[in-house]
Amino acid sequence: MARNIVSEKKGEKMELWGLFFVSLMPILKVLLITALGTLLALDRFQILGDNATKHLNTMVYFVFAPALVCGNLAKTITLRSMIMLWFMPLNVLLTFVIGTILGWLLIKITKVPHHLHGLVLGCCSAGNLGNLPLIIVPAICKERSIPFGDVNVCYRNALAYASLSMALGSIFIWSYAYNIVRIYSRNLSCIVKVDSVENRVSVAETDPENPSKCSTESFQAAEDKSKSNEHVKELEIECTVPNGHAKVPKKGKIMKHVKIIAEKINLKVLFAPCTIGVIVGLIIGVIPQFRKLLVVDGAPLRVVQDSIDMLGGAGIPAMTLLVGANLLKGLKGSRKQVPLIVGITLVRFIALPAIGIGIVKGAVHFGFIHSDPLYQFLLLLQFALPPAVAMSTITQLFGAGEGECSVIMLATYSCAAVSLTLWCTFFMWLVL
């Protein structure tokens, strides 16, 4: 009897070790390609220098990523699967909302400088929902001791789940995180500098706390001319919208705030190339006539789908190489803020995954999620990913915290090698 108990415990221990090695293999693949990207970006080789990285980033943004998303969604997503996977968009939204709340708490605790608020909120809310799940989840299905059943079925489902995750991540990152960084990177208050010698007035925008109080209209600074002409006087004045002192009806106030928000949200990013790829892929996948025309075996326009797949196949290695090249900037970064880096790491790798377990298991308990362990695994994984690589691109677009972003990426992706392996092991043990 005692021997049986010991053998059962050994079997459980070996099974846990087996799950650990299954989790480790995809992470090692990502690390090897990332290390190659860092190596190619070194000054000694200059293969992925600044210009090459910029051009490759452009190719990924306009060609590889849209083709990757479009091709995978067209092949793997149908109307039936969309209905079955209805919880995933809500799950992704929860990762962004909860991450934003935790990021806001981090800002208050660590007293982050104002110009970095958008970067912190973006890194805490936007996870790498694109290339990492698309590498990790299908790769797990190819391992010998896969815990998710038949290899072919597992791989096909993994591609469908990861592709939808990438599509949703792209939409949320470029509509949610992009506009957070955009709003915080704009300076919205006015400091009027009056040079009493030459009677010049200049405006410096520095405080984005109150966007409704600034106007680009010319103002008049009342300055006593009897003051000394030897010094430049800086006066901080409150800028109000025209007729700001007049009473505005409640309906007018609402419309004014709606207009301000609409001006600040760049609707063009909602139709970024990757988002267009999502829309096209979903249309092809969901509408049976398009599937018969483009996707199924023997389809008349199958060559179009094959061409899209070839282009998309270059997306994952290109994006991973870019991660390595961008991490090199973090190695050169000098403005390290340890409390900020530690805080983002704790949010993304401890707090979010722990909250995610409660959300996903609660959804399973109430019957919101179907019983596929692979699907549950991916939903849990969405809470444990490092910050989205697109945050580097977004900070470069606005020139807001580029150096800090590189350091954050270096720290979080270094920790992700260990964190993702452990969380993947635990998640597989949890859902099986």
TrEMBL record:
It holds the Pfam family Mem_trans. It is a multi-pass membrane protein. InterPro entries: Mem_transp_PIN-like (IPR004776), PILS1/3/4/5/7 (IPR045033). Keywords: Auxin signaling pathway, Endoplasmic reticulum, Membrane, Transmembrane, Transmembrane helix, Transport. The chain crosses the membrane at residues 16-42, 54-74, 86-107, 160-178, 269-290, 310-328, 340-368, 374-398, 410-431. It is found in: Endoplasmic reticulum membrane. One of its GO terms (cellular component) is endoplasmic reticulum membrane. One of its GO terms (biological process) is endoplasmic reticulum to cytosol auxin transport. Involved in cellular auxin homeostasis by regulating auxin metabolism. Regulates intracellular auxin accumulation at the endoplasmic reticulum and thus auxin availability for nuclear auxin signaling. PANTHER family: AUXIN EFFLUX CARRIER FAMILY PROTEIN (PTHR31651:SF44), PTHR31651. Belongs to the auxin efflux carrier (TC 2.A.69.2) family. This is Protein PIN-LIKES 3. It comes from Lupinus luteus (European yellow lupine). The lineage of its organism: Eukaryota, Viridiplantae, Streptophyta, Embryophyta, Tracheophyta.
